Amino acid sequence: MKSNEPNRGPSGDMPRAIQPKKLITGEIRAKMSLSVGRIASGPNHWVRQDIVDAILRRLQRSDVSFLGPRRTGKTSILWHIRDRYSTPDHHFVYLNVQRYTTEEEWLRAMIEELIKLEAELGWRKKLEGLRGWASGHLGRLKEIKVMGTGLSVTDLDRQETWQDVGKQLFGLLQQSQSKITFMLDEFPELVRSVAKRSPADAAALLGWFQADRQVQDQVSFLVTGSLGLPTVARRYQLMKQINDFEAYRIEPMKPDEARALARRLADDNELPASEDTIGWMLSRIGTSWPYFIQLFLSAIQDLGLPADTELSEAQLEELYETRLLDQTYNSYLEMMWERLSDYFEALELRQAHALLGFTAAKGISVTTDSLRDRYRTGLPSGSDFSEQEFRYLLDVLVHDGYLVESDSSWVFSSHLLRDFWNRRTR
User: Fold this and answer.
1) 216 and 174 in contact (C-beta within 8 Å)?
2) Parallel, antiparallel, or unpaired: how do β-strands 246-249 and 64-67 relate?
3) How far apart are CA 178 and CA 410, in angstroms?
4) Distance between CA atoms of 120 and 268, rounded to whole angstroms?
5) Taking a C-beta distance cutoff of 8 angstroms, is the pair 269, 278 a contact?
6) Which residues lie closer than 8 Å to 296 by C-beta, 6 or more apart?
7) Contact 3, 25 (CB under 8 A)
8) Which residues contact 387 (CB under 8 A, 6 or more apart)?
9) How many angstroms separate the CA atoms of 284 and 18, rounded?
10) Phi, psi at 51, each rounded to 5°
11) Based on the number of CB atoms within 10 Å of its own CB, is 385 exposed (0-12), middle (13-18) or buried (19 or more)?
């Protein structure tokens, strides 16, 4: 009988200090369902063990900035680490901070997540001081409500600063003799929200965060986001406050792993996807992110054909043109178009669209010099060219998954996004 161990990609050596929970053997492995509109997790998550191991190794020696564009599987990897590697002696706490716009909101959310752990059997003793600290020893907390087995922080007094609260919190965790790793998803968005309000406040936030991290050995941080933290830091001149993070970038699947994932999904979902079909699909989308593979196979699934059907190249091309490039079906494409306005001002937005349209129309790689020339032509009359602003724009387009650099030239990150851009702009 097969075990119910999650689906794994190629595996590297497991860090000795952090081991996954042992799994029950003797059970049949669950089928892997397609996951397009939700985060792939549990049996539906293809574990990229080499990435997991690389992150865990780095966390043993430093805090980590996990870089990569949207829809590349970063959150699934963080959930997997939380669910498989948390133990009574080391817990991984996942928190999406994109919706927070102030330092207090972020700190309150971390406290609430920790208090939830206090209700878990293995953590009652480890975090027993947290309840007393939150309810009786900190004037900063104005109101605490007991809800079930935990607490909920509902309001904050302004007598003490959020830095005071954070310092006391980390001091308490440092004394717990248990390790905690906070995994902060979309952390750069929080920093950007604070910086847009006040660059000085963002500098204070990252400065405090850096100072407290450097004296901790029981608390570590993994921060991630589609908009890279270095990109935000450069925009607001905050690089010195993040230079202690060790950067690690997620890469697309290698051909063999991408083919293995596609084969597994096709078999488990009884899809008409021969080896030739899978090969055509991978070549057409151009970059093997799991989401793209899931999306194409979902389009094949919607045909409702028997698994032994052999699809022609004409049928596959029609699927690509009518489904994969249709922003109604593929919301990722429209999101990539619209999200440029989230972090670019009017002139920058026009320049970004100009550079992307120029690259898409070429259909092949373009040089940095040609992009620089195109950027210059988009400047208002009388404006001076700024290499720093040009590079910032390119950095954002790279970090958020639009362009990639290869041999001093630039190409779209996938054929899929390039073809959509050409369709959208013509």
Assistant:
1) yes
2) parallel
3) 46
4) 35
5) no
6) 281, 285, 319, 320, 324
7) yes
8) none
9) 39
10) -70, -45
11) exposed
Residues 337, 339, 345, 346: what is their CA dihedral angle, to the nearest 10 degrees? 30
Token digits for 114?
Answer: 């920790």
Return the half-sphere exposure (C-beta side, CA atoms, 13 A cut-off) of residue 63: 27
Cα–Cα distance list, 299 to 255, 324, 420 (Å): 21, 8, 17
Calpha distance 153→250 (Å, rounded): 35
CB 272 within 8 A of CB 305: yes
Find out whether 196 and 345 touch, Cβ atoms under 8 Å: no
The letter for the amino acid at 373 is D
Sign of CA dihedral 75, 76, 77, 82: positive
Q: What is the pLDDT along the chain (426 residues), one digit of tens a residue?
A: 334 344 544 444 554 456 666 544 444 568 999 999 889 999 999 999 999 999 999 999 999 999 888 889 999 999 999 999 998 888 899 999 988 988 888 888 888 888 777 666 555 555 666 666 665 444 444 443 333 334 445 554 545 677 888 888 888 787 777 789 999 999 988 998 899 889 999 998 898 888 878 777 888 999 998 777 887 888 788 888 888 889 999 999 999 999 999 999 999 999 999 999 999 999 999 999 999 999 999 999 999 999 999 999 999 999 999 999 998 888 889 889 988 887 788 999 999 999 999 999 998 899 999 999 999 999 999 899 999 899 989 988 988 889 998 888 999 999 999 999 999 987
How distant is the alpha carbon of residue 120 from its chain centre?
27
Give the integer Cα–Cα distance in Å for 82 and 381: 53
Name the token pair of 130. 């947290």
The answer regarding whether domain 333-425 maps to CATH 1.10.10.10 reads yes
Gap between the Cα atoms of 256 and 272, Å rounded: 20
Superfamily of domain 42-249: P-loop containing nucleotide triphosphate hydrolases (3.40.50.300)
Question: Cβ contacts of residue 393 below 8 Å, gap of 6+?
Answer: 344, 348, 351, 352, 355, 375
The Cα–Cα gap between 253 and 266 comes to 17
- Nearest-angstrom CA–CA distance, 18 and 16: 6
Question: Which has the closest alpha carbon to 293: 3, 32, 16?
Answer: 32
Using DSSP's 3-state secondary structure scheme, residue 242 falls into coil
